[in-house]
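BUG: 3D viewer hangs when loading the predicted structure for this chain

Environment: internal workstation, default settings.
Expected: structure renders.
Actual: progress bar stalls at 90%.

Input used:
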Amino acid sequence: MSLLTTLTGLLLATVGTPLFVIIAVLALVVFASDGVDLTVLFIEMYRLADEPALTAIPLFAFSGFLLAESGAARRLVRLSEALLWWLPGGLAIMALSVCALLTAFTGASGMTIVAVGGLLFPALQQARYPESFSLGLLTTSGSLGLLFPPSIPLILYGIVSETPIDELFVAGIAPGMLLVLALAGYGFFVGRRVNRTSFPEPPAGTPGDPPERSGERVVSACVEAVWELLLPVAVITGIYSGFIAVSEAAALSAMYVLVVEMVLRREIRLSQLPGIIRETMVLVGGIYLILASSMAYTSFLIDAEIPTRLLATLQGGIESRLLFLVLLNLFLLAVGCMIDMFSALVVVVPLILPVAAAYDIHPVHLGIIFLANLEIGYSTPPVGLNLFIASARLERPILQLYRASLPFLLILLACLLVITYVPALSLFALD
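Structure tokens produced before the viewer hung:
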């Protein structure tokens, strides 16, 4: 039976079948061979439709797509320029901040690289940052905001693991800030070495226009970006105050961005809206199909006591919680390199949850470890997704990006050790 499913999966993957189709087919093959009624897949879809938090995914994704298509990235760049022109490495720190904010709302690192890579890479080059540093910075920062609310992977983990999403939102802030600050420190160090205390000086009127060293420039940039700055504040405050639920916050976000970018800014035309909706629904539809298929398949694995056998095997050879966390990180980094994040969440999380619980790992802490690993795995050679997207967007050979990303990956891996072995960083608000 396992040989049949393995061969089926390999055959479908070889001919380029989308991953959600492979998962669905494997689930159906397993059910059919075991005499399970195939309607279980549709029952799982119906059960998911009753999940209130699930409605947050398409709405937050739609908000992210709208922001990516608008001039939000350009306004955030100008604001960062106005605030950080005096700081060595200020341009690099600005790039990290903008990428983290956009990724938090889009939930897709590739979209961030495509949206701002062409804007920030020429500015970094003009400021005489080393090309290797600039390439590594943009490649790794493309997935830097996945731990910040309202990240779609955080919501998805909450649904799959049945963990409160508001607790995950709080838990991700400190670890996410650790990753950003660690890379910002490296940017500051490189900025001092190249003796850059200001931004580049391209022709007036371009996105990298040198900031005026006055309060007027800061006020002007804040006024210009005020609508984008208010969005995360309103969403996070609303959720944490208990005034609105996550799904309601998602609906308000979508309406807010729609009004701002179409009515107030007028940067997105009505004719563009069907295309943006279509792109959003392709992403969300794939997530839903993966989720339904994987959860049905996972139910089968649980009925077959696969997690129980896995736990018995691990406990037979691994008694140390410390060693288990080391192996878990290595496994999740490999998963992050080879499987897209949404598939990894719904396939792997149900299997490792009971195992992690046996080692007394809190599900919220496990979720932050899980997403931090996948976030880093996106930029890990040889097949991290960010590497290929950055290679295409920045027009550089993939091998050059491998070398450029290594210093950033070492910093992120050091942060991962802190996130893994200092659970208070994630659980401080729950104690």
